[in-house]
Amino acid sequence: MRVTLTVNGAETTADVEPRLLLVHYLRDVLGLTGTHWGCDTSNCGACTVWLDGVPIKSCTTLAAMADGHEVRTVEGLASEDGLDPVQQGFVEEHGLQCGFCTPGMMMTARALLDRIPDPDEATIREAISGNLCRCTGYENIVRAIRWAARHEAERTSEEAAV
Amino acid sequence: MQVPAPFEYQRAGSVDEAIALLARSGGDARLVAGGHSLLPMMKLRLARPETLVDINGLSDLEYVKVDGDEIAIGAMTRHVGVLESAVLAEHYRIFAEAERVIADPLVRNRGTVGGSLCQADPSEDLSAVFAALKGRAVIRSASGTRSVDLRAFHLGPYETVVGDAEIVVEVRVPIRPHTGSAYEKVERRAGDWSVAAAGAFVQLRGDTIDDVGIGMTAVGAAHFTCEEAEDSLRGGPVSPEAIDEAARICGQRCNPSADQRGPVDYKRHLVSVLVARALTRSVARARGEAA
Known about the structure:
The complex is a heterodimer. By secondary structure, chain A is an alpha+beta fold. Chain A folds into two domains: about 1-75, Ubiquitin-like (UB roll) (Roll); about 85-160, [2Fe-2S]-binding domain (DNA polymerase, domain 1), CATH 1.10.150. Chain A is about 35% helix and about 15% strand. Chain A has helices spanning about 20-30, 85-90, 100-115, 120-125, 140-160, and strands spanning about 1-5, 10-15, 50, 55, 70. A five-stranded mixed β-sheet of chain A has the order 2-1-5-3-4, with helices on one face. In chain A, strand 1 and strand 2 (about 10-15) form a beta hairpin. The longest helix of chain A has 23 residues, at about 140-160. Chain A starts with a strand and ends with a helix. In chain A, about 50% of the residues are buried. By secondary structure, chain B is of the alpha+beta class. In chain B, helix 9 packs antiparallel against helix 10 and helix 10 runs antiparallel to helix 11. The longest helix of chain B has 23 residues, at about 265-285.
């Protein structure tokens, strides 16, 4: 079947089998390997992408189900101005070790901050409870997301001052 | 790599179209909503439909609203919609308490109420919630609409009364004044299935229990409930002793299996503890106390 998905703002189209999972469409058809393919059982969250603005697990969504919809992946986080504050936060606070969970973590974190700009630690931990990290013990990931929240708040107040 | 076996993919633009597509496939088709139960089953070949009918476009089935003296929940309502519903928070706190411990936020963004019920997993949480609240499912077919008590909805694990060419469109729960409700679940780790879970509502008239509902999941309780325990409470005065007795009956009458989540005697004990907690908090909430 022919599917057409908008991925990171660009229209993509391909002939696919109905059983093709969204994660494999992104990685194998489009070559967007930033989205990681982990447990295959909707547990680990490494494959987290946005579907119509909502973070979901792309190993448990068919490419066919995303036909006609908008997908955003980790490749779509940075803008012309540079890294997204969430990405910068992971750099500043050493929010990763092996990096496998990082793209999914960042997509979940970006969605969280869009909804709740100043989340407390408990809210962050709840939000990322569907993204498993086996390296960091989550401490630095939480700090990275807090860094992004602080940074965005400062930037917003600076912009308001101007 | 886990991928489903090949199938034909169809999209339904309306409930009628979904029913027509199901009817045309003669029992070899399945509806897919969030897909977070069905797609994993298909990857493991535990389900192997020849046709998938995608109903994610049926956004008119995504709502939570007061309708007369009931709350109506559309079958396509995502778990996150139940978790964050102001209507449900006002009338039944059991919903948010159960939803907060269903899978994880990403899964809750996708999974649906109708899908959860139709999957009929014996450890599923909303089945216990709706059993406790004595809700009913509204089921549509080409010939019309019927309504089934949620306590008669499940025929057994992974089996429901929903026919091959039928679709659950709505779940309804009666609104009850002077009522509190609560949910208690023990899981091994965040996002896991229950070791055991119990939910309840208590409706008070003064210090008398006017009506009560108890739901349980993951412990082999018939129809996700225990009417004997409910009967022991209904019409009687509220007391810790009465709650403990009802909780004891629940622990005794359920039928848990020993598995990696624990032995049978532990699960029975856990059921009694969780039922007592859910009832106690329901009573406090019915009285308007913090709980």
